[in-house]
Every structure is written in structure tokens, then in C-alpha cells.
Amino acid sequence: MVATAGRDVVRALTDERVVTALIDRGAQSRADLAAAAEVSRPTSSESVRRLVEVGLVRETAEVRKGAGRAGNLVDLGPAVGTALSVVVAPEGVTTEVLDVRGQVVTEQRVHLRGSRTRPSAAVRQALRGQGGGPHVAAAVSVADPVDRTTGRAVELADAPFLTGSLDPRTLLAGVVAGPIEVDNDVNWAARAELAAGAPGDFAYLHLGEGLGGAIVSEGAIVHGGRGLVGEVAHVVVAGPRGKAMPFTEVFAKLGLRQRDSTALDVDAVLRLLDRDPGPVVRALAGVVAGVVAFADPSELVLGGPWAAPAVAPVRAELSSYPRDVVVREARVPDDAASRGVRDGAVALLRDRVLEQVRGTLGP
């Protein structure tokens, strides 16, 4: 019994090495696969046989070009499946089908800006046109806070982008046969920044049409009790003429909001930062001071469309503060949330595949 259990463990470890080599390096000959997995050719061939039986691996009819004998290649099989990346943003909904190597298989976009279509309906519409299954994992980015327990969008007062009671897990339940991770867009942007080499402890502030933050501690996103960590729009700061007010109200007082909306007018903010950055920068520095006091980040990262011109004046404003912190622009300045959610979807898929490998052997 013990010997049998030991053999099963060795087989599972071998299968995991083989699948990992195929994920990382693509289709290979049996000889190359054995070398990449660091096992003998007979051991590799036996692993391939087991994995072909459960659909995780297949032998292709593709012939290798160049010198040497032609032969079949070993590649991942249909049971590996795909992942869905879903981004619900003010301008619209984007869904992508991704393979386990992170390549986009198909993509759908449904525009929302200027439309009466509700985000939930737009998600359904995008999913109807999406192929490339079976989908066995999904990651969803929402431009609103997300309740960490239910995965539903949370509507806060004066939020510029109301997605309604969006429930991505319910929307995707009949489409995705596996884990579904839902988070807000700023947290996904912070994950992209972490993947780009940021230290394991930093604070991220998104400066765009909306205002938001994320805290990364010991390499992980801090969500808090309900998932509302980083909602900085209502932090009380010094506004025009030194009057205390919520951060978002500073922009209203300065005439920097879009018409009939609490969303910021980015072009107007950029013009003011170029002409007279003081009022915005002092308010932003007040938010930063609070974040630094409570989270003690090693870096303060500014991302979003008006982050670049804010970095230098914020540094100058903070120079007189008692707590020192590095302030810099994001390493991933463009489309950070989309990159983060895409990477998250692929990571979920990869974990799912390796779980399948570990579960292929019977007792």
C-alpha cells in the first residue's frame, strides 16, 4: 500500500513537470520534452500516455522543420481549457478568451459610454459572442468597489461609475466551470504593478476620471473586511481656502468634474496641474499622508492619466512631512487594470490545470 502510494506521488510529480514544460515552452518532441521536464525519455513517454488518456496532452501531426528526422510533437490537449478575462469599465465591457500561455484566442467589446445599456446586459452580450471554450477559470475587473464575500459590485455615494448591483459570479456561472475571481480595477492595476517588479509593500493611487487606491502588503492585495480598502474619494482633506472636505469634493469646487457627473474631467485637471498645481496637489498630499500613516508603504505609486504631472509636485509637497516615502509613477502606466486581470485569469487557469494533473491518478 505504501509502495503504491509512493509510486502515485512520483507519477503525479512527473506529470506536473511534463505539463509545466509544455505550458512554458510550447509543443515539443518527446526527446525535448523529456529534457525540459528533467526526466528520462521512458518516464516522459509514460507520462504523456497517461495525460493523453485524460485529454490534458495530445500528439500533433505537425512535422518539425529543419535537420533531423521528422516526427509528431507533444502539446497541451483540449481538456486544459481556457480562461476568461472580463473588464467592466466606464467606456464599455471587454471580454477575452485566453489560453494557458496567455495568448488571446478571441475578444469581444461592447461600448457603454453614451449608451443606455446596463453593464450586466453588456456582459451578457459580450459573452454571447464569445467562443474559444471550454472556459475553466475567469477573472473580472469592475470599476466599482467589490464586496470580497459575494463578489458583487458595491455602490457608494457619489461614485462616478455605477455598475448597479452587478454580480459577475452569477453572470458567469453558466459559462465558466471553475474559479471566478472578482476585484476592482485599481486592485488589478496594483497587481500588474507588482508583476512589473514593484516591491512587496506599496500603495497605489489611481488618478483618472475616478479616484481609487490599493494597498499591497507582503506581496498581496489588502482587501479589508468588506473589500473596500483604497476607497480614497471621501477622505477628508484641505480643499480650496483650507476648508475641510472630501477629496472628491475638491474637484467639484475647482470646476474639474464632467458635466452632470461626479467623474473628473481629466483634460481640465491636466490644464490646472500645468497652470497652478497647488490646490490639487495639497489635497492629494493629504490623502497620501493618511495612506502612509496607516499602511507604511515602502513606495507610493501614482498611476492613471494624470499621474505623470502630479509626481514631482507631490514629492515636493511631501518633503516637509515627518514621514519619508518614495513617490514615483507607475511602471505600467497604460491599461494597467486590463493587464492585471489578464494575468490573473491566466494564473487561475494554470493553477486549475495543475490541479487536474494532480487529480488524474486514482487510488
UniProtKB/TrEMBL annotation:
Lineage of the species this protein comes from: Bacteria, Bacillati, Actinomycetota, Actinomycetes, Micrococcales
InterPro entries listed in its UniProt record: ATPase_NBD, ROK, WH-like_DNA-bd_sf, WH_DNA-bd_sf
Protein name per its UniProtKB record: ROK family transcriptional regulator
Gene3D superfamilies: 3.30.420.40, Winged helix-like DNA-binding domain superfamily/Winged helix DNA-binding domain
Pfam families registered for this protein in UniProt: ROK
Domain of life per record: Bacteria
Family affiliation: Belongs to the ROK (NagC/XylR) family.
